[in-house]
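1st attempt posting a full record on here, be nice pls
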Amino acid sequence: MNFLFLGYGYAKGNILLDPAIPIEDLDSRLHSFAGAYVRAIDVFGLSGKFDVIVPFAAGDWSGLLEGQAGSTSRTGFGDPRLRLSVNFYGAPALEASEFRSYSQNLTAGASLQVIAPLGLYYPEKLINLGSNRWTIRPQFGIANRFGQWIIEAYTGFWFFTRNPDFYGGNLLQQRPLWTTKIHLVRSFSKGIWASADLGYGYGGRSVVEGVDRDTRISTFRFGLTLSVPLAPQHSIKIYVVSGKRVERGADFDGVGIGYLFHWGSK
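the predicted structure (as tokens):
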């Protein structure tokens, strides 16, 4: 099967796209758009998927840099993301006709996402939509169904390559970032489902020209999601999300909506 997703989100608050940036009292307004293609695949008898996501954003930032007030705007593409996911336990590859009789129990899987440095990037600017470096994200997850409820848990890491042209030619390095997420999903009639989402990220301290910055991330994210089918091949997804930092990281509130179309089932 194939899936096409188009989404829009709006967020406001302290939204730094790179934690190494030394900006204080940051206020941001960010409009984000995303297009994604997902292909469900058979991986040697195991269910899997491949997806690619292309983000586009328009935002305004204002804050204090070394005690001086300033503001800026950016509009353009962010770094595209490619991911391969495989369920290695409890979820064999199925035809659509077989899926109707499939009953989910314990499922375990893993994914590997690569974020390519192709987004808008100005070496002489602090605020950018691209990162000018590669990011590798392995993730592992388990899920289990209990009647109409599904519990999902994930843990993973972000590994970053070097950015040799950070803000005027400096060398930026970033230590790995650890993340964990939990989703509690409730299924309703007619294909409707809703979820409560909780995530936490820790680590990711930045190193500029060999000097550690006080940028260790420690932040929570909370969210609610609702998915409603419009027709057999069409659905919409609505979400609200909030980020709350403990030490460093994004501190924001956001809302979004997405449209999903699928085709190719047998």
